[in-house]
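Posting for a labmate who doesn't have an account.
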Amino acid sequence: MIEIRVSLHGDVHKYRRGRPDPIVERLADDATIQSLVDAIGIDPAVPISFGINGQLARRDSPLHNGDEVLILTPMEGGR
């Protein structure tokens, strides 16, 4: 098992569901970002972006013990 810290921002913040920020998740050793998204229960139709330890990541990016993950909804608008 691995333990990671997860911060949710933007529209996905509602999936915190009263848990502390950051959320501490324990996942299987072969976990990916998608495994994390599934564990948190984020709707798969929601467009989201990811970062692992300050680097952009994809749904198939592997996770490692101690990683810090940021999940956020893309920003829109602006000029």
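Reply:
Got it, the structure tokens are right above this. The chain has a mean pLDDT of 92.
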